[in-house]
Amino acid sequence: MVLRIGYVREHFCSPLLQFEAEDKGSMFTLVECPSGTGQLISRLTNDEIDIAIALTDPLIAGIAKGSEAYKLVGSYVTSPLRWAVITGNKPSTYNQISDLQGSTIGISRNGSGSQTMAYVMALQQRWATSELKFQVNNDIRGLIDSVNDGTTSAFMWEWFTTKPFADAGECRFIGQVPTPWPSWLIAAHPTRAEPAAVRTFLNNLSRHVRAFASAEARAGPSVKFVMETFGYPETDVKEWLDAVEYPEDCATIPWNVIVDTLGVLQQAGAVASPEGDVKRDRFLNLDVVKLV
Q1: Does residue 146 carry a pLDDT above 80?
Q2: E strands along 89-244, which residues?
Q3: I want to staple 148 with a disulfide (CB 3.0 to 4.6 A). Which of 88, 152, 166, 236 is the partner?
Q4: Torsion, CA 46, CA 52, CA 55, CA 57, rounded to 10
Q5: Angle at Cα 261 formed by Cα 281 and Cα 99, nearest 5°?
Q6: CA Rg value for the chain
Q7: 272 to 39, 64, 263: CA distances (angstroms)
Q8: Which residue, among 30, 162, 20, 191, has the nearest Cα to 89 in the 3D structure?
Q9: Helix (H, G, I), strand (E, B) or coil at 30
Q10: For 79-88, what is each residue's pLDDT tens digit?
Q11: For 188, phi and psi rounded to 5 degrees?
């Protein structure tokens, strides 16, 4: 089967784009989801994609809240994600994270990483998570427009993706919140995506991830690819590459990633505490993934 792979077109997906150029549609096609993980989960639910490369926290939160549209099959990025806290470009009362308490936070979609990380931010600031107010603004353009027209105070998005907008004076960074978990996992529909096809895809993706993340590639070819594909300045690309980590094998997930992420999400009030032990087969497709 030709798999439909949902993804967000960001610098993190560079190895996937290199794989696509080699594959030429024989194994998979890409389906861009610019609104992020909330949109990826929605498209898995609506039979619009078979696999999603998406943020760890909303994927795990979705299953914890009862979604049966997908199970986890692998890892994509093992380093934390650096979330910028972003407000409007004009002087305002929002100049640091503590100024946001009680205000309305912009998010892309309900269940997105921009929402779950707002809960984490509230936890770090010792705010009551029940006080959080959200406004859905769909995508990066809607989020930037919202902080500039005053309907929201701030939003959270990956640092380097939004840095060009800040450099252009469209918005301001007032802080950052790194994820307390590895940033990207891979999920697949439990019945539509055949295990053999998913394993083949993950094995080949692993090959491209290892090549992109090698010391030799980080010293030149990977920097050039990201600059040419996404238009980022060389200094930003090198700073990101110095910090990002990919797995050796994309078909693996450490079980503690699931348990630890759930623990933080429960503490932040983003998901309810489970009754009894967390069942592995609820979160993982054990016909595909290898626990490490």
Answers
A1: yes
A2: 104-107, 133-136, 154-158, 171-178, 184-188
A3: 88
A4: 60
A5: 150
A6: 18
A7: 22, 8, 10
A8: 162
A9: strand
A10: 999 999 999 9
A11: -140, 150
